[in-house]
Amino acid sequence: MKHFAIHINPAFSDQPGIFGLLEKLAEEYDIIFYGLQEQRDILPDFIRVFSLEWKPLPQIDCVLVFGGDGTILRAKKLALQTKAPILGINLGYLGFLSETTLTELKASIRDLLNCKYKLLNRMLISCHLKREGKIIYHNLALNDAVIYKAETPRLIHVRIFNGGRFVFDTRCDGVIASTPTGSTAYSLSAGGPLLSPEMQAIILSPINPHLLSIRPMVFPARDRILMKVYGLGEPAWLQVDGVNCVRIQENDEVLITASRQVVPFIKLSNRTFYQILRKKLHLGK
Questions:
Q1: Across the chain, what does the average pLDDT equal?
Q2: How far apart are CA 54 and CA 5, in angstroms?
Q3: Residue 151 CB-density burial (10 A; 0-12 exposed, 13-18 middle, 19+ buried)
Q4: Residue 206's CB: how many other CB atoms inside 10 A?
């Protein structure tokens, strides 16, 4: 590995410290660093700027993401289009998706150069918004796709189908469709189960359902989950990986399926998912 793309949380205060460390690594290990044009205002001169619109794209061997889990979610498109694995450097709070820290970065880069790492492929879900039978929006989610009631104080109605077969109808604040990676995020806050990131499954977690009998459910990744939204007093939101993407109108349908694409993450340590849960979520304590 010699070609690294950089994606950094622009709100992080000690950017000069990060860039100073990267410049030393570039000189010591003959590494070339790249950054996206959208971050060019904060990038120093030794980092080469490029656009995802370029054809061909520069060769990228790894995407270094400096920030928390939200920053890693924003780097999803960069990883997918360059077909490069992500190494998360945690500058945030929990950092479930991060593998290393800023103080460990030099040792981590040395391990990468010596091929001392493994790859963990994390599944994505494909989200289509259908209106009057036509697809008007599509996106991929690493964590989750969420139907949310938005500004209205009223509950909304969501009717769930799996492969054309009726599952349940619920009045709620919304529904979270999550990947196993996203099971430690918003879905967990809504009472959803914890799933190993190596699993292939789709979680549906209703948000504040009116009936206690409505519970989160886990579906095989091969299933096609359709959510029909109705009973709206005003438009709802479709959120993908924490970003409001498009308004949902009466009788719109959201189709959730497993994507054929995956996002590879670099794993440097032998820490298990369960060790991470015990450390960061205090599981069992």
A1: 95
A2: 15
A3: exposed
A4: 25
The length of the chain is 285
Residue of 69, 144, 173, 252 marked active site? 69
Check if 223 is active-site. Answer: no
Q: State if pTM tops 0.85.
A: yes
Class of domain 3-117+268-280 as given by CATH: alpha beta
CATH 2.60.200.30 in the chain, residues?
124-260
**143-192: per-residue pLDDT in tens?**
999 999 998 899 999 999 999 999 999 999 999 999 999 999 999 999 99
Task: Report d(CA 239, CA 221) in Å as an integer.
Answer: 20
Pick the CATH number of 124-260 from 3.40.190.10, 3.30.70.920, 3.40.50.720, 2.60.200.30: 2.60.200.30
Tens of pLDDT along 209-218?
999 999 999 9
pLDDT exceeds cutoff 90 at 92: no
Query: Which pairing describes strands 217-220 and 32-36: parallel, antiparallel, or unpaired?
Result: unpaired
